[in-house]
Design brief:
Structural Genomics Hypothetical 15.5 Kd Protein In mrcA-pckA Intergenic Region, Chain A; alpha+beta; 210 residues; Ribosomal Protein S4 Delta 41, Chain A, domain 1; five-stranded antiparallel beta sheet; 2 domains
Length: 210
């Protein structure tokens, strides 16, 4: 399945309940859709009990859409997480959070992950002084993330910093707004993941495939 490029609020209405949101996908939430807070579609307002498979599928889709990864990419992340010692669900979240596009988003350099991916793919971002245009690049402790020393690059990021997607920079990142540089101090901790997700259900969804 290709990366989603359709209406983003429609996805939020379909996958989220209450005040939940997909901060990486869009800055909007269900409450900004007016009276249409129920899931989209002809039977969206109907109340029906979800099956266990439906719950697992929904959590998987939330993870996919929030981080902007394809089904094939998600499958690879799950397989890699399974091969590493520790909690598969937590490792999966950490790998997604440590992607370069998400790191740019969490620093406030872009309002959403798709916007951060565009910054990276257009060559505005550097890692350890070298321009990196691969959004899936895995940031590691000790990496120095910065903005290319070009007026256009710096201006774009400075404008984004006025309206960041999330209010707080997570504890594993150290950000110097004046220099537009950041240091990755460690792997992100589970409590700093901004998405309301049950990662164990995602692991269960892929248990028969990975």
């Amino acid at each position: 399945m290709a990366r989603y490029r359709g209406p983003r609020l429609r996805i939020v209405r379909r996958l989220c309940t209450g005040t939940d949101a997909l901060p990486g996908l869009t800055r909007k939430d269900r409450r900004q859709s007016g009276k249409r807070t129920n899931p989209p579609g002809q039977h969206g307002a109907a109340r029906r009990k979800e099956s266990e498979y439906a719950r697992r599928l929904k959590e998987k889709q939330k993870l996919r859409y929030n981080y902007g990864v394809s089904e094939r990419q998600m499958f690879r992340y799950v397989r890699k997480a399974r091969s590493i010692s520790g909690s598969t669900g937590q490792i999966l979240l950490q790998m997604l959070e440590m992607r370069l596009d998400n790191t740019i988003f969490r620093l406030g350099m872009a309002p959403t992950i798709p916007a951060a991916r565009q910054l990276v793919s257009h060559g505005h971002i550097t890692v350890n002084g070298t321009r990196v245009n691969v959004a899936s690049y895995q940031c590691r402790p000790g990496d120095l993330v910065g903005v290319r020393d070009k007026a256009a690059s710096r201006k774009r990021v400075e404008e984004n910093l006025l309206y960041p997607g999330l209010a707080n920079v997570p504890s594993h990142l150290e950000f110097d707004k004046a220099k537009l540089t950041a240091k990755v101090n460690s792997i992100i901790e589970r409590e700093w993941v901004a998405l309301n997700i049950d990662e164990l259900l995602v692991v269960e969804y892929y248990s028969r495939k990975a």
